Amino acid sequence: MTSLHLQHLSKHYGATQAVQDVSLSCTAASRVAIVGPSGSGKTTLLRMLAGFEHPDQGSITLDGQTLAADGRALPAHLRGIGYVAQDGALFPHLTVADNIGFGLTLKGEARNRRIAELLDMVALDQAMLQRWPHQLSGGQQQRIALARALAQQPRLMLLDEPFSALDTGLRAAMRKMVAQLLGDAGITPFWSPTIRPRPCPLPTSWR
Ligand SMILES: Nc1ncnc2c1ncn2[C@@H]1O[C@H](COP(=O)(O)OP(=O)(O)O)[C@@H](O)[C@H]1O
Ligand SMILES: [Mg+2]
């Protein structure tokens, strides 16, 4: 059972306090959404969980294992955590197939089958496999990044505004699909959703 505990996490960059004293706990199969305005520290928080940034203070534990505390941190690749960055962050010099298969240890036909299966999971056409990242739309890149993260069978999945490049209809469908997918795979999702502010009337002086 995945259970994640953050205690008094803080992180600053120079004079900027990006994350201040965040504590929370979540249990297996729960979905946690981190909501806040731009610049409030959502990405920094996720990057500390993934192991790409180290907290100045506080601790992170997952399934009873300490990932970061007292200035020490477990390297990202040993955490068993999937991370989908806001822009997908695909490797530009690798095809879609090689991006998805990047961390797979399988070889030959078994590897190809697994890559095809992962592409299916994110509802993309097999014809995409030989394309390069620059030949994909933003939304397709995000889905390939999700497939690449799923390939690692992580115990926890971090999604940083993963569907921000999708239109409203597709975003709702993808959110449902990913929740189902991660639920079926027993992966706990922890994400910062894209919240669109409600339209509000402009002040008369701006019109
Ligand atoms: N690598 C960095 N170096 C310096 N400042 C950073 C860096 N990353 C983020 N920040 C600053 O930290 C704050 C939080 O950023 P971020 O975590 O990206 O917020 P959010 O994802 O909620 O928009 C912002 O003020 C941002 O400018
Ligand atoms: Mg962000």
Descriptive keywords:
single chain; binds magnesium ion; 5 helices; Rossmann fold; alpha/beta; disordered C terminus; five-stranded antiparallel beta sheet; four-stranded parallel beta sheet; globular; binds adenosine-5'-diphosphate; 207 residues
What would your notes on this structure say?
It is built from five helices and nine strands, in the order βββαββββαααβαβ. With 207 residues, it is α/β, with parallel strands linked by helices. The longest helix has 18 residues, at 168-185. Residues 196-207 have low confidence and may be disordered. The chain has a single domain (4-196), classed as 3-Layer(aba) Sandwich (Rossmann fold). A five-stranded antiparallel sheet has the order 2-1-4-5-6, with helices on one face. α3 packs across α4 (138-150). It is globular.
Brief synopsis:
This protein is of the alpha/beta class.
Mean pLDDT: 85
Report strand order across the widest sheet: 2-1-4-5-6
How many H/I helices? Answer: 5
| Cα shape | globular
**Rg:** 18 Å
Number of domains: 1
Unique ligands? adenosine-5'-diphosphate, magnesium ion
CATH class: Alpha Beta
**How much β-strand is present in the residues?**
15-25%
